Structure formats: structure tokens, C-alpha cells
């Protein structure tokens, strides 16, 4: 990631983004990746030296598609993006922990948080690139890779909705206690991002905050090929 892109992250309207996270549990990000940056990531999909593992989703009944985890050391673009996003999200993570009555705190910087992961045997990086072709989809799930997790993750659209593919909307499901679930359908244009909860979110009720369970997925791709980039902040065992 160039310094310019790092500046794009730090220059975002973070008070408004944090407000959206508190109010609705997710927040869209404006275009952060240019067309060339998106294309470079997609072009590198077949270069296996970048990745530590490839997952066939059908084999594990996760859906229909494929994704690859980047290996350490991460490409500079992903490393700096992960580092730039983390500090502002850690502020919201600590606020949410307080709302839900947790004593757990998150450090100010990614390096410190990853030290906590590594102490628990979670040493494998988790940023990934996902590829879906016509008929592909991703079942509702959570990305948890050990005892330590970060409350937020971010997904970026790498190619053009309605031009390179159709369908493939991002799905976010909120399972509320003693109530029916609430679903969100979110579309992303090329280069846009979405911050969403990894596992839970706090919701303000008449008796204070309560915890809801969140899961995410992708609806069926009806034509073309869809690429996306996932930034997860905790490492895996």
C-alpha cells in the first residue's frame, strides 16, 4: 500500500464511521482502492507463492467458491492496510466491550494485539482473497480462529458489480435474543469497503445494552466472477 492509500485510511470520517457502527453494527467505507490496485490483487490470485493455504468451500460445505489466505510476511499493501485500520477500530472495540460489561481491552496498535494472539498460539495470518464464479455463494458464518479474536473485520470489493458479475450481495444476519433475526443486504462498488462485527454487537435496549450474535455471508453469484479482499485482524492457530 502506498503512503497515499495509508493517508486515505487515516483521513476517513472516523467519528461518523464509529457512529454508524454503534447505531447499525456496520459501516461502509468509500473507495479506498483504485482500479489498478484492485487489478493487481486479482492478477496475483494465481501466484501461489503469496498464499499459505487454499480453501475449496464446497469441500467443507461452507458454500461454493474458493479463498486463499495470504502467508507471512504479508504483502506490503495488506500489512499497512491492516495497521492503518486497526487503531480507530480498537477504540470502538473497547467502547463495545464496556457496553457489554467485558473487562477485555484491546491495545492501541496492531503489533501489540498480535502479540496477544501469538501468546495463545495464534500465529498464522488471516487476510484472504475470495473468488466466486457463477452459482457461487458463502453460507452465513463467523471467522473465529482461536480463543483470541478482534470484534471487527473489513471486506473490500475488487471488481465491478453489474459489469464483472451479478448477484453476490454481502449478507449480514443479526440474531437478537428472544426475537426473530434481522438481515441486512449490502452492495459494494469496486474499491469500497465494509466494516462489520466478527461475532457480536451491543444494542441499546430499555434496560441498557444487550448482546446480539452476528453472522455474515454472500448471496449467490448469478453471472460472472466476483473477487473480494478480507482483512481480519486476529491471527489463526
Outline:
With about 240 residues, the protein is of the alpha+beta class. The protein contains five helices and 14 strands.
Blueprint of the fold:
Blueprint: H1 3-10, H2 14-24, E1 27-29, H3 35-43, E2 51-56, E3 63-64, E4 66-70, H4 76-99, H5 110-119, E5 128-133, E6 137-141, E7 152-157, E8 165-167, E9 170-175, E10 182-186, E11 193-197, E12 200-205, E13 208-218, E14 221-232
Antiparallel strand pairs: 1-11, 2-4, 3-6, 4-5, 5-14, 6-13, 7-11, 7-14, 8-14, 9-10, 9-13, 12-13
Helix pairs in contact: 1-4, 2-4
Q: How many DSSP-defined strands?
A: 14
**Span from first to last CA?**
26 Å
Given the helix and strand composition, which structural class is it? alpha+beta
Q: Give the helix proportion (percent range).
A: 25-40%
What global shape is seen?
globular
What's the order of the H and E elements? HHEHEEEHHEEEEEEEEEE
Could you tell me the mean pLDDT?
95
Q: Spans with pLDDT under 50 lasting ≥5 residues?
A: none
Tell me the number of helical segments per DSSP (H or I, 4 or more residues long). 5
Radius of gyration: 17 Å
Strand count, sense and closure of the main sheet? 8 strands, antiparallel
Beta-strand content bin: 25-35%
Primary descriptors:
single chain; 237 residues; alpha+beta; eight-stranded antiparallel β-sheet; 14 strands; 26% helix
Question: Care to describe what's here?
Answer:
The relative contact order is 0.21. With 237 residues, this protein is of the alpha+beta class. Helix 1 (3-10) runs parallel beside helix 4 (76-99) and helix 2 (14-24) crosses helix 4. The protein is built from 5 helices and 14 strands. It has helices at residues 3-10, 14-24, 35-43, 76-99, 110-119; strands spanning 27-29, 51-56, 63-64, 66-70, 128-133, 137-141, 152-157, 165-167, 170-175, 182-186, 193-197, 200-205, 208-218, 221-232. It starts with a helix and ends in a 5-residue tail after the last strand. Strands 1, 2, 4, 5, 7, 8, 11 and 14 form an 8-stranded antiparallel beta sheet that branches. Strands 3, 6, 9, 10, 12 and 13 form a 6-stranded antiparallel beta sheet that branches.
Amino acid at each position: 500500500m502506498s503512503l497515499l492509500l495509508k493517508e486515505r485510511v487515516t483521513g476517513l470520517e472516523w467519528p461518523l464511521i464509529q457512529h454508524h457502527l454503534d447505531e447499525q453494527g456496520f459501516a461502509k467505507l468509500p473507495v479506498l482502492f483504485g482500479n489498478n490496485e484492485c487489478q493487481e490483487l486479482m492478477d496475483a490470485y494465481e501466484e501461489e507463492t503469496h498464499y499459505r493455504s487454499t480453501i475449496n468451500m464446497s469441500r467443507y460445505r461452507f458454500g461454493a467458491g474458493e479463498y486463499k489466505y495470504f502467508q507471512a510476511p504479508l504483502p506490503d499493501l495488506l500489512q499497512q492496510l491492516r495497521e492503518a485500520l486497526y487503531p480507530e477500530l480498537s477504540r470502538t472495540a473497547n467502547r463495545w466491550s464496556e457496553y457489554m460489561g467485558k473487562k477485555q481491552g484491546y491495545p492501541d496498535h496492531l503489533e501489540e494485539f498480535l502479540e496477544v494472539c501469538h501468546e495463545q498460539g495464534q500465529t498464522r495470518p488471516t487476510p484472504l482473497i475470495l473468488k466466486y464464479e457463477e452459482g457461487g455463494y458463502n453460507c452465513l458464518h463467523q471467522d473465529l480462529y482461536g480463543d483470541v479474536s478482534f470484534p471487527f473485520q473489513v471486506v473490500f470489493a475488487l471488481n465491478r458489480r453489474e459489469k464483472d458479475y451479478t448477484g453476490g450481495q454481502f449478507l449480514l444476519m443479526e440474531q437478537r435474543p428472544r426475537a426473530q433475526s434481522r438481515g441486512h443486504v449490502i452492495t459494494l462498488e469496486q474499491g469500497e469497503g465494509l466494516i462489520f462485527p466478527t461475532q457480536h454487537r451491543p444494542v441499546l435496549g430499555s434496560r441498557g445494552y444487550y448482546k446480539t450474535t452476528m453472522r455474515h455471508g454472500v448471496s449467490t453469484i448469478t453471472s460472472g466472477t466476483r473477487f473480494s479482499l478480507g482483512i481480519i485482524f486476529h491471527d489463526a492457530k
